[in-house]
Amino acid sequence: MRNQTVYRILCEEKENESVVPVYLQLAFGAFGNILAVILLLASRHEHRWQTIYVLFTGLVLVDLIHNCVCYPLVLQRYITHFTWCFSIPMCDFYSFMETCSHLASGMIIGLMTIDRYLYITRRRNQNENNPRRRTYACALLIVLIFASIIAGLQLMGLGNSQLYYPGSWCFLDFTDKTIGNRVNATVYSVIGLCSLFVTVIVGVKTIYIIRRNPEYQALLLDNNLVTGVYDEHVTTFLVISMVTFLLLWSPLLVG
């Protein structure tokens, strides 16, 4: 059950927080997404939109939609000098978007890491049939649907959202000890932690394999597949993604 007292106090308090960090987050997020889209469009003929680029497109779109939907609500709270506050339905919606975005992004990065590992361990060569774009699009769709279902549990009555300081964002209610909120928080945390563990373990193992055995590097040199280990920018992206998600997402999962 939502703590109405805390909710009301956060709505009524007039905070003196600076809006600058919010603008910076929005600016960096928008710049990163726009740059990613430009790079995807520029390289679509070279890489044929196969394998990891399909998943990368999904990751960019998830983050872009999240920024476009959530940040205007956050900014509304700040630019009105904290006189405007989330309504209960809007708080539920914001919490759903945050939860869905986190889960979808984490699982997509996990899929990208697993795809890279399977490419190595299965030892494909240029004469084998490569998975079609439809296969990766279906995997991406399944991830998005699954993340939406888990994030929607709070909208179906299993737990609820809660407003958090400084009254500019909502998320799952980790503070309440009712069974519904405990179950909802546990499901979210378990799925998130599993995604993180799989991503880190598989990613580290993949990097270890390709650095230890030059044969895999030669085997996976394919100009038409961006999943090849010679695509150093892909390796760099996955490593940065793993580290970033581990540092930024884990506090929400274990808190």
Which key terms come to mind for this protein?
single chain, 71% helix, mainly alpha, Rhopdopsin 7-helix transmembrane proteins, globular
Summary, kept brief:
This protein is mostly helical and 255 residues long.
What do these coordinates show?
This protein has helices spanning 4-12, 20-42, 44-47, 52-79, 88-121, 133-151, 179-212, 214-219, 232-254, and strands at 161-164, 169-172. It is mainly α and 255 residues long. It has one domain (4-254): Rhodopsin 7-helix transmembrane proteins (Rhopdopsin 7-helix transmembrane proteins), CATH 1.20.1070.10. The chain has a two-stranded antiparallel sheet with strand order 1-2. A hairpin with a 4-residue loop joins strand 1 and strand 2 (169-172). The longest helix has 34 residues, at 88-121. The radius of gyration is 20 Å and the shape is globular. The model is unreliable at 219-230 (pLDDT under 50).
Topology of this structure?
Elements: H1 4-12, H2 20-42, H3 44-47, H4 52-79, H5 88-121, H6 133-151, E1 161-164, E2 169-172, H7 179-212, H8 214-219, H9 232-254
Antiparallel strand pairs: 1-2
Helix pairs in contact: 2-4, 4-5, 4-6, 5-6, 5-7, 5-9, 7-9
The SSE order reads: HHHHHHEEHHH
**Structure summary, number of beta strands:** 2
What does the average pLDDT come to? 80
CATH architecture classification name: Up-down Bundle
Q: Identify the strand order in the major beta sheet.
A: 1-2
The H-level CATH homologous superfamily, spelled out, is Rhodopsin 7-helix transmembrane proteins
Question: What helical percentage do the residues reach?
Answer: over 70%
Largest sheet: 2 strands, antiparallel
Low-confidence stretches: 219-230
Quaternary: single chain
What best-fitting shape do the alpha-carbon axes yield?
Answer: globular
Strand content: under 5%
Question: Class in CATH?
Answer: Mainly Alpha
**Gyration radius, to the nearest Å?**
20 Å
CATH fold annotation: Rhopdopsin 7-helix transmembrane proteins
Structural class: mainly alpha
Number of helices, counting only DSSP H or I runs of 4 residues or more: 9
Tally the structural domains.
1
